[in-house]
Design goal:
Shape: globular
Largest sheet: 5 strands, parallel
Strand order of the largest sheet: 1-5-4-2-3
Length: 132
């Protein structure tokens, strides 16, 4: 017997985008070097190795994100204790919309996500660092 999906991913992403601010390529470029923003790459490590990452971005795999954000988790990462704006991104801004929404619901603030994701960043001429 197959299950009937009652809520589809596009609807979930659209819903998340009503609660999370999206940062344009130009806005992201303007804050990339600032000490007030942390770029968080939530893609799988194989994606980073294949295509690189935004310079200075912190890698937090999507599957561990909530554990790394929560200060009571044994997996907590101190980068999420900083008084900064967190800019989440993935390949095409679907996973990052969901991740940013979840992070925001956990109390991490301020949180935004990158419009169009890494794909748009790269196509728009954004700098990319190689990942080994």
């Amino acid at each position: 017997m197959s299950q009937k999906i009652t809520r589809h991913i596009k609807e979930m992403v659209e819903d998340a985008n009503t609660r999370v601010k999206t940062l344009s390529f130009d806005e992201a470029q303007a804050v990339l070097s600032s000490d007030t923003h942390v770029f968080v790459d939530i893609r799988d490590i194989r994606e980073l190795q294949r295509s690189g990452k935004i310079p200075g971005a912190f890698h937090a795999p999507r599957g561990m994100l909530e554990f790394w954000i929560d200060p009571e988790s044994p997996y907590h990462r101190a980068v999420f204790d900083e008084d900064k704006t967190y800019v989440f991104y993935c390949a095409s801004a679907w996973r990052s919309a969901l991740a940013a929404d979840m992070a925001q619901s956990m109390g991490l603030s301020p949180v935004v996500h990158l419009e169009g994701g890494f794909t748009h960043w790269e196509r728009s001429g954004g700098a990319v660092d190689k990942v080994d």
